[in-house]
Structure formats: structure tokens, C-alpha cells
Please model this.
Amino acid sequence: MSLKPQNQDNKKQHPTHTVHKIGGTSMDAVETVFENILVGDREGDALYNRIFVVSAYSGMTDLLLEHKKTTDPGVFSLYANSDNEWAWGDALSRVSGAMHEKNRECLKDNADLDLANRFVEERIEGVRSCLIDLHRLCSFGHFQLPEHLATVREMLSSLGEAHSAFNTMLLLKRRGVNAVFVDLSGWRENSSLTLDQRIEQAFSGIDLTEQLPIVTGYAQCEEGLTGIYGRGYSEVTFSRIACLTGSKEAIIHKEFHLSSADPKIVPEENIKPIGKTNYDVADQLANMGMEAIHPKAAKGLRQQNIPLRIMNCFEPNHDGTIISDDGKSRMPRVEIITGLPSVYEIEIFNQDMVGTPGASKPVHEAFARYKLWTLARYINANTMTHYVSAPLKQIKRCINEIQENLPSAEIRSRKVAVVSAIGSNLENGQFFEKAIAALANADIRILATQKPSRNVDLQFVIAEKNYETAIRALHKELVEANEKGKSKPVQKAA
Model:
């Protein structure tokens, strides 16, 4: 197939295929994924004109790198910080065991199981040999391990997606589907390619009308996806495939709907899927750590005018939520109440700031150097306040550096929570006033607040202990009580 970005010429060709991404938690529900997404009641031509980008099975990347939430070390962390091969070698063996166990769970045909196990053994032992050789090489003074760790992380990341994609291909073939394993991991390849070149090369001989590509979420490329995008690399791969193939729609299948609140906080009967929104809202959700899609991945879809649909893999007949550049609600409404229950407030009072251009430069440079994720900031004449989500150790180092560079500044920090009301159209709805009243009625003191001029979000800083109460209070007042904000039915999924 011919791969080129969707432009004015090929827009007129009305693209016929869709690009899908299946997340790790959803991938774990193998039968559900096959019945609700991959096959179901589809037959013949209906099985094709789709591309699937798959994540690793749930928990596998945690074992390979480090646990996403607890930061417990995986193979990579142990390799990067160990003087011997035993700790990381045992961890890699545990990954192998977990992959073999997943194979036994998924694959009922002995021939398929044998193929899958041999695939795992080849990849695991290939990586083991490579890491041993690198460790030995770095025992000489001319080679330093830290210089190669980014590459090691990339290589380990690739194992999880290659495993799940290969298994999915086998299962589809067993069901009579002409599935193709599209390995973007660069395994045993000598060529160095950009991400776009890697995708173009892989898809050059694929006929989407007769073949169903199952693609690894990790792609080896010159840019280094894990270094730039962290654990969001599979969404970037998914986005670039959608853009380069000019798909008519990009679809992410999750284990939940993109809904008006977290059902663990607000009673499930009171929340509802958003239905329709725009990429501004997707960006705000990403800023709050609740990614509909990685913001860098969303950028490409937005530029190519490709709508993104978020669907619940357990409710295949529900149309989900569609995100598009023109998805702004006609009527003012709050679409989601979300936030972060634990962030750090860093307040920098500096009398020398007043009337001094560039006075905040040392602060911004320190934040960038320590990679502190700032989800909100407030500035007045002599004070900068940043709200960040990062480990305390990292924050302390950053504060120490700022204090060294600004010795006359007074810096204090404390833990707080941030809640946010987000919507594609918050104009003329008096949502800010209603939110303040709702929090006051719930006896919640507002420590700081912000109402940006773009009218897509409201932010409130509160005490940690009040986080869930605030979410419920704002949802009740701004979503449940706002009957006029009901959206029109979302267009049918492709």
C-alpha cells in the first residue's frame, strides 16, 4: 500500500480503513477482545481494512522496566543499578516465565503454543546474551554503561509488545483470519530508520483489503521512543500509523469509557460517557494524568484531521466518545471532573522578581533539568507557585538548586490536591461561580484557583483529605445538575 500523510489530495479519496489500539489491560481479556473487537460476527471483507496496534499484556512492561505506580524495579532498573548479572538475570527469567504462562493461558492448540514458546525463548535469550556482552564490554574503561542504557531500555520495551502481537496473530490465523505479524521492534536488524521510515517499510507490501496487520506498539527508530515519550510510546506508534496511512478514524479500545468522573469516586449510576469532545479536552486530561491519548500522539491526529474514538472493549455496541478538532460542544457544559489527589505545591517568594524581566529563568531551568511535571502554575508580582507531580526526592533536589541560584528567595512546599472541571465549551455557563459555591457548601476550603481564558478547564487547589469529596461535589453540581448540557448522540463507530 502507498503510505503518505493525509493531505488535501488524498482526503478526497475517502479513506476506507481504521487504525485501532488495544491497551494492556484489555489485551489480558483475550476472549473478550476477540469477540468484541477483532472478530465477533465479522466475516469475509468485514474482517479487513483495519490495522491493530497492540500493547504488551498487563503487567509485562512493569516486569521488563519498572512498576509504573510503585516503581518496584524490573529488569531494566536492576540492570542499570547492579554490579552483577544475577539480579537482573533472575528478573529476566521471571519475565520469561510470565510470558510462557500467558502463552498457556491464551493458546489451546499445541502447535501454536510451541511456536509462541519458541518465539519467547528466542527473544528472551537473545536479549540476555546482548546484556551479558554489554556488561562485559563495559568492564573496560573505554565503554561506559550509562551511555547505552537508553538503548537497553528500548530493547527491553520491545519484548512485551512483540510477545502479545505474535500471540494475537497466531490466534487470528487459527480462526481463519489472514493476520500478519508486523514487527516494528527492529529485532536483529542492522539498518537505522526514523519512525516514519520504519512504518513505511513494514507496510509497503501489505494489502489492507486482504490482510489484517497486528502491529507491535513499540517501534525501534532513530528518535528513541521511550526516551522521548516514556511509557506512552505505543500511542505515538498508533498515531503515526493512522497519519501515514490516512485512516478515516483512529480508535483506542480501553477497559472503561471516557466518562464524566471516576466510578471509584462517583457512584456509577451518576456518571456518563462524554460522547463527543475535542482535542483541547484531551490535552487537559493528559495534563491531569488521565490520558485519553498521549498529547504528542494527539497532535498528529489533530493536524491530519483524523477523529479519535475511545471505546470500552467490554461494551462493543456502545459508540464510545469521539474526539475531533471540531468536537466543541454547541452548548456550554462540563464534560468531566477529574484531578490529582496528591501533588506538591512549590511556592517561591522573591522580592527581586518585581519589574525584572527573566527573573523566573533559574526556576524554569531547574524544573526542566529535574523533569518536574508542572500541571498548574500561578504568578504574581513577587511569587511563583508551581503544582508538580513527582517523587519527593526529585522535588527536594530541584528546590535546593533553586535556592542556590536565588539565595534571597523564600521557598516552601506542601502536599495538596488539585481538582479540575473540564469541557470543550465552558463559556457563559457560570461554572466557575457554581463550582466555588459547591465546594463551599461541602465545607472545602479553596487554597488556590484558576480560570484560564481558553474556557476549557477550571482548577481548584484543595487539601489532600478533601479530594474525593470535592470530586463528588463538583460532579453533582456541574454535571448531574446541568441538564441543559446533555450532548447529542455521537456518530456511529466505523
DSSP finds 17 helices and 14 strands in the chain. The chain has two domains: 8-255, 336-485.
